[in-house]
Amino acid sequence: MQTSPYSLYDKNYKSNLEHINSACNLTLPTAIPNLILSETPHIERDPYCATLLSYTTTAGDTYNSIAAQFKVSSAAVRAVNWPTIDCFAIPECTRLCIPFGCETYTLKDRDTCDSIEQELELKPWLRLSAIQEYNP
Fold first, then answer.
1. Superfamily of structural domain 54-97
2. Any idea where the domains of the chain sit in the sequence?
3. What is the maximal distance between C-alpha atoms in the chain?
4. Per the confidence metrics, is the pTM higher than 0.85?
5. Residues 46, 52, 54, CA angle at the centre, nearest 5°?
6. Cβ count near 21 (within 10 Å)
7. 26-83 pLDDT tens trace
8. C-alpha to C-alpha distance for 38 and 52, rounded to whole angstroms
């Protein structure tokens, strides 16, 4: 790592370079320079949402309720908004990206992977491994 006002050279790199200087009988400079800061202020931008569809949460919203409303999986809602929100407590007025939709299946009591496969008449190539893969 080269030391410069534009690099990520820090105390760890400095320590390594001091060791190299000592071991190799060198006198390379090891001072950590002041970073040159951008004069352009940091501008907060909305996170990118591929669907361009967003939803602002209300009291009591959950991943499941939002997913059902938009006919998407709750796992997909979580995935496209991670790590923006806490999955156990979605604050009111939080703007969420709604993912691309797909056919969803709502679990019933006593459902198993086998019973779901039978009910949906899944093709052999879309069996247990796919159900588990897309539903973490």
1. LysM domain (3.10.350.10)
2. 1-39, 54-97, 107-136
3. 74
4. no
5. 70
6. 14
7. 888 888 877 665 555 544 555 678 889 999 999 989 888 999 999 898 888 888 887 6
8. 30
